[in-house]
C-alpha cells in the first residue's frame, strides 16, 4: 500500500467513506425512482417466468420433444395464482422491487465508488492491474443476474408453483413470496459469478493459490452442490444444471490465481 506524505486521519477516512456511501445511495435511489415510475415494464419482467410461454420453458420443451418425451415445461400456464393478502401488500412490493432494481442496475456505479475509496492507497502499478476491475466485475455480475433470471428463477417457479401435496390444496402464492424467490435467485447468482474477482484479490493477498484450489477441488465440488441445492428446487436435474457453470467459474478462477501468482513471482525475481 502507498503511504503518502499528507496521510489522512481516521476521521478523514470516515468522512470520505461517508460521501462515497451517500453518492452510492443516491445512485440507487435515482434508479429506484425510475423503476417505480416504469412499474408496468418492471413487473412484466418480474411475472414473465410464471407464464408458460417464457423463453426458458419453451427451450426445455423443445429439448424434450427432441428426445421424444413430454416435458413438464410445455404447460401453457403454470397452476398457481399470485395474490396480495395485506392492505399495503402491492404498494410494499412496488417500493421494494424498485429499490432492489436500483441496487442491481446501479451496481457498476457502487463498485466505482468502492474503487475511488480504495485506489488512493494503492501503488500506481496496482492501479493499472486493477483498472479493469469495475468493467469485469460488472460484466460478471450481470451475466450472473441473467443466469439467475433465465435459468434459476424459471426452474424454481416451475417446480415450487406446480408442486402439490394434494388436489385439495390450491397454490395461491403471496406476491411477497413470489418476488422473494425471483430476487434471491437473481442476486445470489450475480454474487456467485463474482468468484473470479474474489479469487484474484485473495491470490494477491496471499490467502489462496492455484495449488491450494487444485488440492481442494473435490471439497469445492461438494460446496458447489450445496450452493446449487440452496438456490434451486430440490431435484437433481436443476442442481446439475446450476452446478456446471459454477464449477466452470471455479476452474477459471484457478487459471486466474495461477496468472496472478506468476506475475507476483516475476516481480520478486
TrEMBL record:
It is found in: Cell membrane; Membrane. GO terms for cellular component: TAT protein transport complex. It comes from the Bacteria. One of its GO terms (molecular function) is proton motive force dependent protein transmembrane transporter activity. Signal peptide: none annotated. Its main location: membrane. Forms a complex with TatA. This is Sec-independent protein translocase protein TatC.
